């Protein structure tokens, strides 16, 4: 299997090939074309030219037709794509199937919105009109991560296309084959004008850095870590481009004493180990009311221990490998440091003994208990299967502990007390709060971060607005 660059309507070879590996076995799955600044520059030039023709930017019906045809072409490939996602990313097949289904649904959602970008017209004084036009922002550069490369590609590319932007996509090297396979039926459409969608891949980040720095890129959408997002914000500053940054998180789950601890512990365990803990919104800290701490310790340890580790294509698997062995070693070392310095280790995770998993990037989950929410493992995003359990006294203490973080991506509140659930949800400084659930994300519902979790929103109508500019046109026509 090979993935090539697609620039200005043509599939192109690159500067050699880079292998893509199955993180569960280390097996080579295929290769993607190497690229870098040269490909990024060519792609931006092509997109810039394409944007300046009215054929795309001013033709919402064409945009809708292209997106609907793309979704129709993907539909029969769902299962194949889900398998490829599991092979390249490692996540359990059921998670891949859910992701491919969600991505498809999101293309349809934005295909509908292509025909709904209204402005406004006002008579500001007798015979004087101010008209507000919602216009596509221009060329959009999209840097896509590897952890959910289906949904996270679509939630940036689909609103950019719906708005009428021309685009350059740079997938993560770890999941380049999957991203190229999802985009192929879009790129091959005759109705898609050349240069409107470009794709290049690279193992380094010179091409991505070009997207950030180029004055020809008007909007830059990045999903990744807060450290890289900060660097991007600095490097983009001289061009004043619009930024959409979806960054790291440290999700808290606040569990009140009226909740059914034994029933929710398996849900919290699943929320913590989704994509092996490599999801920005994964549960990281469980804050439980002090009277239920001991019960939660036992229930969560048991729930995490019960999750089978294995290859994502094995139907029994609930936790697959991390994205690669480098990530396993880095994240594993940080989890070990957390275990060495916490108040109590409840479940000691690490590299599994199982010889059958020896070639993969596996880590078994860890659970620790700690009192001080200032500890590095309560503050830092550790992108793997580590869950920290803390206790709180009352509502105010729960909210203060949960808000004691630089992040603000997501949280969940677990209680049967309806008024308390809403009160606490409103007090949390997070872009998303779930009540008696976790990790529920929808095409229709905006997601994004407060504070260091990012800028702007993806999903929903607001994501489309992030790829537009608002123009005021004034005209005095007099009165009859
Ligand atoms: P990362 O920050 O390491 O990003 C890697 C990507 O950044 C690569 O594609 C690389 O090409 C690019 N890059 C690196 N340096 C660059 C530079 N100077 N200029 C431009 N691009 C550059 O993140 P990761 O490890 O790939 O992803 C994991 C992170 O993503 C976690 O922090 C996670 O929370 C976050 N994430 C956030 C969301 C969200 O919706 N908020 C969703 C998924 C993942």
From TrEMBL:
Residues 17-473 form the Aldehyde dehydrogenase domain. Gene3D superfamilies: Aldehyde Dehydrogenase, Chain A, domain 1 (3.40.605.10), Aldehyde Dehydrogenase, Chain A, domain 2 (3.40.309.10). InterPro entries: Ald_DH/histidinol_DH, Ald_DH_C, Ald_DH_N, Aldehyde_DH_dom. The keyword Transmembrane helix does not apply. Pfam families: Aldedh. It comes from the Bacteria. The keyword Membrane does not apply. Keywords: Oxidoreductase. Transmembrane segments: none annotated. This is Aldehyde dehydrogenase. It comes from Alloalcanivorax balearicus MACL04. The lineage of its organism: Bacteria, Pseudomonadati, Pseudomonadota, Gammaproteobacteria, Oceanospirillales.
